[in-house]
């Protein structure tokens, strides 16, 4: 059923004309439904520590990662997008004809011209729905957020015809053998976007920071692996956090009447700051960086508070009252102090969002949205309603945004979203733990066979879960054929 | 100066809050300013016919192409985007701080992760404006249209803060040695998007057709060349035209009160059909295909007319009254008849849009917008005001849309757009005609050096026009450095 019969493309001309008057943005636009796909195999990070001969805890404590999902040669970016999109449509009983916009965010490029979106059109073929805007957007881990913003904008624009938008954020994150390899992962998140959403995006507060940097990029087109300057990338992430944080709170305070509870007079008088939010959710390249980001936010928030009222500055931070942000990215002593001071905040507001990141690893564009799913899975409908979420999206290169959302007060709407996610934990448990030798072998196979044609994959289809699309063949013209596990 | 001071991010909180009420879509959103960049060298298609030993007229008449622009190893997708974007900002005296959205459409991928958009952020560095949404969108020649739609949607959304959007459509189109090579080209178009535009996009009529096809794609990531199934691609183009045409006119007639002249009562009573438009503008892979598309539209329009009133069917087409569209793509006899019957329409409404396509060749994502520029350059302000344009965008793989626009009635607004384009013809004339031997040599150099690092380009910088960005160096980490011709 379309969201809004009045504006739907199939409606009569008179009612369509009527819809041009009055308020033009539908209410409560945001995420109505979500689904996630992750590989059926994982390597345990403790196994990997032992296998790689590194100190115990290097990956599990140092990076904050527990397990890492990976795929063999049976899956590619198109197959995981097919799997998660079809799964979402089925779970939430959305008819393919009711989708009017579909956009993919990914940096797992297997064709320089043909978008993944065109492959997904196969899911709509039987319904006859070919009128679906959107192609695919790329900039590192940020493409999902760009696609989400475009989807929201479409729904608020004059071109919206009452149908839903779909956003798919998906990536296969693999690194060359070496120090960065344990920070890989793989996942795909699909989101149904429309009015009367479960997670409603706040208006007028999106803040963005973009710059030209070579911190992580993929210039060697024949390889699946990125070029990474790890220390620079960590610094860029925190720098983007600084910029987005300050701009977000500038915008939030300019628009605070819309963000605050209109019935709570005392709330309206105060400035919006970090404690306003119940969940603080990040793009998670590895969980330890997220923890450091929450720590840094403690400093950022205090600097903003003191600009408003010097007495509100945390006295334990006194030494850093006049710190120059741009010079502090490598200040380990400050970082340690901030980690301690922010630990309660981290445990309460952010840690619940990291479950999938710990279990699967970095999913690039899907990472932030997997964190949203984890947060939602961490609590009950009763506790989650009306919760305020702050989100930070980062893509190397670089592109970053901070934005916010409020969980609906409507329990029925939230329950519907959560019902679609009940199989996530069971699916995580069903996965197969694979020894590091097999993991290395698989990645070597991917490396050797990447971008070759013709190619017939050899991976074991029986390990894939029901509903998973997989490659059956890549012919000499690079045409890819897929089947589905029944 | 921002478009709308009231909604601008720097405005006071009270006026920003006030802007949330009432009508939410700004008026007359569309293209305010345009600029085009094309290479300083070209090969003449008659020279190429002789050099390739093909029959005289094969390229010039068979394809409808006169000259083809190309670049050596001094230019890449980032450099041509830098050149055209800076040129537009300077020409129209737009301050970098007044841009709030910038998106690139391209299929010339030189990095699988880092978007061209991030490179363009260097143009905004001095102004301190880092809060610019948008990354880059990819699906063959369609990415510019996708980006344009996202820019328009952003301006109509709640996230718009009164600043302009920029859309850049750019590509370097090169083919492997052989039959397809003469259909290459290179160009970049930048467009400034906002309200009170010179070319105002019509609302609620965008029609889209997307499908999963392998007609033209770039699966060999290590090569700059596409895989092309020429006959299939021609058929897909026409098939997408059929679908978009019918859906466009369905939507246009459902929303005809908004599209028609409210003062002309007789006009409001009739259905909207092809003759409604003064300019019919296409993505032009080669000009002959555009001519065939106008011919096919003659059939499509007659089939729609007869559904409304059988007596309106062109009697010369009687034989095709019940033609099955999907079986007629290779009907040469019908095509010939349609070419004759539509020739006046083509000469009047489409031919003026093909000047740059004939002179430069296929510019992929930039092609449709170069055709818009050609159309604008073909006439005077007096004749162009209030003209209605129908546009068809096609990207293989496939993604296609039909949409429409009206040239402003405001001569000052149109004059401003046209003033920025006065140097296009002189720049075309200034180009250097290069013999086919040199052209082949240059393409071989690009082929040999594509995606290698470190690399120091050898091309002659002195042939580039003032304001052109060029590569000075690609280091071993693939970092690219650019300079500008003063």
From TrEMBL, chains A, B:
Keywords in alphabetical order: Lipid biosynthesis, Lipid metabolism, Steroid biosynthesis, Steroid metabolism, Sterol biosynthesis, Sterol metabolism, Transferase
Keyword Transferase: yes
Catalytic reactions of this protein: acetoacetyl-CoA + acetyl-CoA + H2O = (3S)-3-hydroxy-3-methylglutaryl-CoA + CoA + H(+)
Keyword NAD: no
Ligand binding (CoA): 233, 288, 292
One Pfam family this sequence matches: HMG_CoA_synt_N
Pathway connected to this protein: Metabolic intermediate biosynthesis; (R)-mevalonate biosynthesis; (R)-mevalonate from acetyl-CoA: step 2/3
Function statement: Catalyzes the condensation of acetyl-CoA with acetoacetyl-CoA to form HMG-CoA.
Family the entry assigns: Belongs to the thiolase-like superfamily. HMG-CoA synthase family.
Protein name: Hydroxymethylglutaryl-CoA synthase
Species of the source: Dermatophagoides farinae
Gene: HMGCS1
């Amino acid at each position: 059923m379309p969201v809004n019969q009045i504006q739907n493309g199939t409606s009569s001309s008179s009612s369509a004309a009527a819809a041009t008057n009055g308020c033009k943005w539908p209410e409560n636009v945001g995420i109505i439904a979500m689904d996630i796909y992750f590989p059926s195999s994982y390597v345990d990070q403790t196994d990997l520590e032992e296998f790689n001969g590194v100190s115990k805890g290097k990956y599990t404590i140092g990076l904050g990662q527990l397990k890492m999902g990976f795929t063999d040669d049976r899956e590619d970016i198109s197959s995981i997008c097919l799997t998660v999109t079809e799964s979402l449509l089925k779970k939430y009983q959305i008819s393919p004809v009711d989708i009017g916009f579909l956009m993919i965010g990914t940096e797992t490029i297997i064709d320089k011209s043909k978008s993944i979106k065109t492959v997904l059109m196969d899911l709509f073929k039987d319904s006859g729905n070919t009128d679906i805007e959107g192609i695919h957007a790329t900039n590192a881990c940020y493409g999902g957020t760009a696609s989400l913003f475009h989807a929201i904008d479409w729904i608020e624009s004059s071109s919206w015809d009452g149908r839903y938008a779909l956003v798919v954020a998906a990536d296969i994150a693999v690194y060359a053998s070496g120090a960065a390899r344990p920070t890989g992962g793989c996942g795909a998140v699909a989101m149904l976007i429309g009015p009367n959403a479960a997670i409603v995006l706040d208006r007028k507060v999106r803040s963005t920071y973009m710059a030209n940097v070579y911190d992580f990029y993929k210039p060697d087109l024949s390889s699946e692996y990125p070029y990474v300057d790890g220390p620079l990338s960590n610094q860029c992430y925190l720098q983007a956090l600084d910029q987005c944080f300050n701009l977000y709170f500038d915008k939030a305070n300019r628009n605070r009447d819309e963000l605050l509870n209109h019935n709570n007079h005392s709330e309206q008088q105060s400035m919006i700051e970090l404690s306003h939010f119940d969940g603080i959710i990040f793009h998670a390249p590895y969980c330890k960086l997220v923890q450091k980001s929450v720590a840094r936010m403690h400093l950022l928030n205090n600097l903003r508070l003191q600009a408003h009222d010097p007495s509100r500055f945390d006295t334990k931070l006194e030494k850093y009252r006049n710190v120059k942000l741009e010079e502090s990215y490598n200040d380990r002593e400050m970082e340690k102090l901030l980690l301690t001071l922010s630990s309660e905040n981290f445990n309460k507001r952010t840690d619940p969002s990291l479950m999938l990141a710990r279990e699967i690893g970095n999913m690039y564009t899907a990472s932030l949205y997997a964190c949203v799913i984890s947060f939602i899975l961490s609590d009950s409908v009763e506790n989650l309603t009306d919760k305020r979420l702050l989100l930070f999206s980062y893509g190397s290169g670089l592109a970053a945004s901070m934005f916010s959302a409020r969980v609906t007060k409507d329990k029925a709407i939230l329950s519907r979203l959560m019902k679609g996610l009940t199989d996530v934990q069971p699916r995580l448990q069903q996965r197969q733990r694979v020894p590091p030798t097999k993991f290395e072998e698989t990645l070597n196979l991917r490396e050797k066979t990447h971008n070759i044609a013709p190619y017939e994959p050899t991976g074991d289809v029986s390990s894939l879960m029901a509903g998973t699309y997989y490659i059956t063949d890549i012919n000499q013209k690079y045409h890819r054929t897929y089947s589905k596990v029944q």
